[in-house]
Amino acid sequence: MGRAGREDRGRCAQGRTGSRSDTRALRLIPRPAPRSRRSTIATVARFGGLTTAQALQFAEGYVAEDIVLQTARTLAREVGLDPVAPGAGAALRLLAAAGGARAVVEIGTGTGVSGVWLLRGMRPDGVLTTIDLENEHQRIARRIFQEAGFASSRTRIITGRALDVLPRLADGAYDMIFVDADPAEYGACVDAALRLLRPAGVLALNGALAGGRIADPAARDLDTVTIREVVKAVRESEEWIPALLPTGDGVLAAVKHA
Ligand SMILES: C[S@@+](CC[C@H](N)C(=O)[O-])C[C@H]1O[C@@H](n2cnc3c(N)ncnc32)[C@H](O)[C@@H]1O
Fold first, then answer.
1. Is residue 81 lining ligand 1, measured as CB closer than 6 Å?
2. Residues 53, 146 within the same domain
3. Which residue ranges traverse the bilayer (predicted)?
């Protein structure tokens, strides 16, 4: 157990005096450390011998990207895009594989980084429907999918604005929806996902930590406020079973209630 974990356990075990049942209940609820001590814990937080930053870096690179993904990533940067981080890509592949995904919708094709990760988790006969405004991005992605060995029948590449295309897709027909485009449209994309997913289908939304601003109440720019509202709405909705994965820029994952 890391130092922070040991300190938490220590605080849990202190409890308070009182009846035996009171003490037991209190032991389950760790009391927050005094403010000065909390900041010390934050700055020296360690996972074994690693600092938090080193551990997160290790986790991001845990599943290495091959030459195709590295090329797609380089091309993304060349056209000014910020593709999913490798750890987030690995999480997408995992979610697609865990759900046995055969039909997946991606909003924000980019140059194909997330698309390749998704296709690698999907069933061998699965089809990725991927939507992007920019034909030029999709032209690159098409070549990347080909380089990664996927037959053209495995992808349905639709050029258009997400909110124009999504209403044309069939209700309850998809196993997974991945959203990585315009944050201003995230709320509408989540609503569309609820309609498009089958019961127990999976929603994944990239950028859910808003570049770290999500937890900063002083951050009130439009994108951050929108993402904060969407993340909160999914958590509070009875339609979703959510988890916020702290990989890359944050992936909000949620399963649609069966
Ligand atoms: C961050 S990039 C996607 C990166 C991609 N998911 C990856 O990891 O390789 C965002 C993409 O969304 C597209 N986009 C932005 N607004 C959009 C919209 N309203 N509808 C569809 N695509 C949009 C952009 O053209 C861009 O290619």
1. yes
2. no
3. none
